[in-house]
Amino acid sequence: MKMIKTKAAIAWEPNQPLSIEEVDLMPPQKGEVLIRIVATGVCHTDAYTLSGTDPEGIFPSILGHEGAGIVEAVGEGVTSLNVGDHVIPLYTPECGKCKFCLSGKTNLCQAIRTTQGKGLMPDGTTRFFKEGKPIFHYMGTSTFSEYTVVPEIAVAKISKDVPLEKVCLLGCGITTGMGAVTNTAKVKSGDSVAVFGLGGIGLAVIMAAKTVGASRIIAIDINPEKFDLAKKLGATDCINPKDYDKPIQDVIVELTDGGVDFSFECIGNVKVMRSALECCHKGWGESVIIGVAGAGEEIATRPFQLVTGRVWRGSAFGGVKGRSQLPLIVEDYLKGKFSIDDFITHELPLEDINKAFDLMHEGKSIRTVIRY
Ligand code: NAD
Ligand code: AHE
Ligand code: ZN
Ligand code: ZN
């Protein structure tokens, strides 16, 4: 197989619009697969990296990590995937062999994490080129390209019965929010929950908290336009911190007779992370950080908050092991156990991808799905 041409949105430098161009893509090498991306969501993490505040941000690169597609070719030695398989590329792979995979304690497979963070395939090179010069991969997935090459261990094979233009959102946002509730926090029926940030992640947290039977789900955002959907998905209370002249954690502690059982930060704002911890109930409340903060940002609280029993933890991709567990989540979607449609507020062709970023920054979208 020779080099192919693919249409892609290139991030040439931070804070500049993506440029739609044709680039060259090498065929899949040993242990790699070529995927035709059918659709991809645009997640806030793509905007974060494009903004230049991601310490691992590297340019020029092809962003995108919330995609779904079809296997077009497999490289030497690939045994678990075949041409025609429907798949979701994984930014958190699952090799099944590394210390992390074998620990039974985490989904954070580290088999290819170092090269992935440098925008490279596991052999230390790129597959994308423009006029002979390498274009870097992003999160090991680069779904803002019609064709992409991904390591076999970073591909979940899913049912052919689901629409790829919907389940692409399981490649990051919806899975992350739902998994943070069920795997990381392990919210149970009757628990109270506070959710900070009502984008794709926060709304998925709300949806899952409702499903497990949370008694009270407090949704917090500075954009009240997000409240209707939050209520539809299960929020019992919607709060805009701008409506109060005291810290939002104090408001929530008063509302809940001492604080919530669980809180989730779904923004990436270190000050809000503090509020999310401090609105948790003394003695047992747990706060899960999902939001991603920029280089140099740090969280702070009085250690007393932890001494007195609150717990701070984090969650990546909802603690979900992509190859073994994501196909089961897709099956749950097929069985009608949760909604994806509610999250898709816009659909655009790749040519208009910069509009998807504008809509996100203007607070007008939950998820824009880019259809190739
Ligand atoms: P989004 O931009 O769609 O939503 C963020 C929401 O936060 C918006 O509704 C915005 O109005 C609200 N917000 C902003 N500042 C606020 C404040 N001070 N107080 C209250 N609300 C505020 O983003 P998203 O795609 O839902 O992603 C959310 C965060 O999660 C981002 O930081 C993203 O990078 C991160 N993320 C992490 C993981 C993970 O695995 N840990 C996965 C996906 C996304
Ligand atoms: N490069 C960033 C890391 C950002 C980050 O934490 N990413 C999440 C996924 S966000 C998806 O929208 C993640 O999976 N983290 C685990 C990991 O290994 O990156 C930075 O800040 O350096
Ligand atoms: Zn994401
Ligand atoms: Zn592993």
Question: Could you explain the architecture of this structure?
Answer:
One of its GO terms (biological process) is formaldehyde catabolic process. Keywords: Metal-binding, NAD, Oxidoreductase, Zinc. Belongs to the zinc-containing alcohol dehydrogenase family. Class-III subfamily. The chain is an alpha/beta fold. The chain has 2 domains: 200 residues, Medium-chain alcohol dehydrogenases, catalytic domain (Quinone Oxidoreductase, Chain A, domain 1, Alpha-Beta Complex); 140 residues, Rossmann fold (3-Layer(aba) Sandwich). Helices cover 26% and strands 24% of the residues. The strands form 3 sheets. Strands 3, 4, 5, 8, 9, 16 and 17 form a 7-stranded mixed beta sheet that branches.
Helix content: 25-40%
| Name of the CATH architecture of the largest domain | Alpha-Beta Complex
The total number of structural domains is 2
**Under CATH, the topology of the largest domain is which?**
Quinone Oxidoreductase, Chain A, domain 1
Strand percent estimate: 15-25%
In angstroms, what separates the terminal alpha carbons? 23 Å
- How many strands in all? 17
Q: Low-confidence stretches at least 5 residues in length (pLDDT < 50)?
A: none
Q: Structural class of the helices, strands and pairings?
A: alpha/beta
Describe, in short, the structure shown.
This protein is an alpha/beta fold and 372 residues long.
What key phrases describe this protein's structure?
alpha/beta, S-nitrosoglutathione reductase (NADH) activity, 372 residues, ADH_Zn_CS, Quinone Oxidoreductase, Chain A, domain 1, GroES-like_sf, binds ligand AHE, binds zinc ion, 24% strand, six-stranded parallel β-sheet, 12 helices, NAD
